[in-house]
Amino acid sequence: MWQRVQILNTGEDMMGDLDTFPKIIRHNYEKYGHTKIAMRCKRFGIWKHITWADFYKSMNHLSLGLKQLGLEWGDKVFILGDNEPEWLYAAYAVQAAGGIFVGGYSDSTANELKYYIEDCDARLVFAEDQEQVDKLLFLKTQVPSLQKVIYWDPKGLWSYQDPLLMSMEEVEQIGRQYGEGHPGEFERILEQTRGDNVALIAYTSGTTGLPKGTMLTHQGLIEMARNLLQIDPIYETDELMSYIPLGWPGDFVCTIHRALIAGAIVNFAEAPDTVEADIREIGATEALLSPKLLEARMKEVETKISRATGVKRWYYHLLMPVGYKVASLKLTNMRVSLFWRVLYGVANCLLFRPLKDRLGYLKTRLIFSAGATIAPEAYSFYHAIGANLKCSYGISEGGGVITLHRDDIQKDSVGPLLPNIQARISDMGEVLLRTPGMFMGYYNNQQSYNKSVKDGWFYTGDYGYINDLGHLIIFDRMTDMITMADGTRCSPQYIESKLRVSPYIAEAMVVGHGQEYLSAIMVIDYNTVGRWAEEHGFSYTTYTDLSQKSEIYELLSQELKRFNREMTPGLRIRKFLVLHKQLDADDAELTRLRKLRRHYVEQHYTSEIEALYTNKSEVLAEATVVYRDGQTRNMIVRIKIETVEE
Amino acid sequence: MKCQWQHTSQDCECKLGVETIGEILRVESVSVTFGKVRAVDNVTLEVAQGEILAVIGPNGAGKTSLLNCINGFYRPERGEIYFENKPIARRPRHEIAKLGIARTFQNINLYDHLSTLDNLLAGRHSHMSTGLLTGALFFGKARQEEIEHREKVEQIVDLLDLQPIRKTPVAFLSYGLRKKVELGRALAMEPKLLLLDEPMAGMNVEEKEDMARYIIDIQELRKPSIMLVEHDMEVVMDISDRVIVLDFGHKIAEGTPREISTDQRVVSAYLGEEIQS
Questions:
Q1: How near does any CA of chain A get to the CA of B146, in Å?
Q2: How far apart are CA A387 and CA A47, in angstroms?
Q3: What is the extent of the structural domain holding B242?
Q4: Over the stretch A285-300, which tens digit does the pLDDT of each residue have?
Q5: Tell me: the pLDDT tens digits for A301-322?
Q6: A63, A109, B132, B156: least buried by Cβ within 10 Å?
Q7: Which CATH superfamily is domain A481-643 in?
Q8: Do A156 and B213 touch (CB under 8 A)?
């Protein structure tokens, strides 16, 4: 019924007085009403439709309800939960009432939540379910300013009677009743919202220090979304998928904001563990995926193939090179001859299409890879099977997506700048930005703002350059760049992404600042290495035990030898050790988006890193072992250090 | 005024309060012997409506045998079992199931090659009324009925967070997940009385905590009476309203978790005699 109408970004007709997101939602409600789906979520195994009218009604009632609960103009409201329609109802109800929402991560510990809630002065908190509510009730006495916790999934909360708690349904009920007594009231408060109001506060991931609250305005975010739409238009009929934690603004700027403006459909996964199956069921037309996930899925394909029957393996290894060949021609902007095109067509029917179908990317026009450096091997893999993977660079303080690959792909770059965005490189090599969606400041932290914004330029802290074709190339964070004793500079993130291509390596951290050579701290992939151990007939008890087996060190040595052959001599890994534990966000070693907190890890494992630059063959570390019955014991683990032979 | 466990209203720890709503199950002087071993020896107990009753005791104390008597696997030699005041001790198993008693097993009994969904649907068997022919042709009422059963099953999927494994054959699932599926299948029967045989055995701490949470959720949402056999004292003390202790087939104690944890006979059965100084 709905045409694939391209929503032109220049569309003055649409924007004009639609300067805030709640107003855009009202506009869509007036345009589509009950006739078009705004969102879809899976409940009891069935995809449930939410029309624009449903969306608007929920926002309306909830917003009035929040007003009745005492939400004042400019109040911050913290939202905690997995991606679900209710999350967006809460977010836009807060904005409609003149408030500002702050997104959190549902796997945060109570202590982390305490920091966020106190830092942003939130009095009202939305929490998805019992798990989140329990953390907030635990904080009740420590954060006395907390006035209400509003939950939307009552499962397990039936017998809770704390006066702090209230269900979202109750709040909507209060709003509905108030609205009936005061017709026109919601429209009146909605009209008061302005484009230059702060729309949301997004906390930085805190890879270097305490997370800072970035304040972004409606107008800025809308401009940035329109910028992206100019380069990558989406259609009313598009199916987008939202599943990346909404505490990170990436999903808003790539998915939700564009869907609101273009009237596309946002789909929510049933549970965090069903995302991949749900993407496939929905047939998402665009997908935002983290490099780590893309790499993991590539490894999964390769591992599964290596276990498949001989015929299937033969078939895969026969046809994949065709894909790689054609992809490499295309990526270097060379002409693909008729011979290769025919061959590719055959391989596409026999392997690539079915593979894309299995991965759920059959209908996907564009896969965004954002957030970190993607391994070149993964990049080639997706292009070989014909998935349109494009790298992108975005930054919260800039208000969204800054660059995106077009069709002239250059593998190492993150693409040219989007329209209306200026960038230059400082003398130190730092990327400076000026965007229409620049942040207003860090909440309650003027000092940091003064440090990072000078003369209207935002100092990103990223080290990079712009090449002749106008492509931005990002190496790493300025502070993370490694300068070796001989002056060679390198980006650890790039080397790590290449190391992670090995199916046996889950995480790697490259060190070597001021040293003669590079070393790596490895975290093995418990599943694949565990299976490898079983296949090769040796037993292990725990991760710690497995990680220190000499066979595993031998296995990784082989992987590193192969890796070293591909690298220039200065960038080879000379020594490595396998960490006795997996890195964990609960131990502050990773951020909630599973990015490495390099400086923290460096501080935490100082003696291990030092040992990599001595003649020692092992280093002692203390480890806490948790038994099945919950008892813990502190043990001393001998971590081996291995030198990779040339 | 006293509740049925003889607690006065001030110190009543039964969640049910003083006015309990009678019993759902009554076991009267039941005995079972295997050769010379008395697995269950003259045990009498009641399960109240909506309560969580834990049965504890050392290995071979007769806990599982007792459950087997209740759901009809064993025929007691002496004594009688009343479910909602109807004698059931000599009835066949499927009839007992139909009356509303469901159970899980110590060593998981699922259809390994069927998916989680199909295993749960199997639990709906006693509620299905379509004949073989209409069922096979998927015709008329059969279709409607299938949809209704699927809805009920989906509610359980939601309650126990089984979404990611809906279509996975249970043989591929981990031990902890299979235990959850088995619990789900028992729930699918919509039982009035749920018998759980060591639901937490072999689980790690986190899985145990989750399972305890599920049992409490089930009790709050669906209000079945639950009788559970368990080794883990900590879990038992946390979630049960009342505890019964068996030793060598005898009931040696009965009371609230707090009473049981200080009972001298229980302490000695579990930890051995204290050395008198």
A1: 14
A2: 26
A3: 24-90+225-271
A4: 998 888 888 998 999 9
A5: 998 998 899 999 999 999 999 9
A6: B132
A7: ANL, C-terminal domain (3.30.300.30)
A8: yes
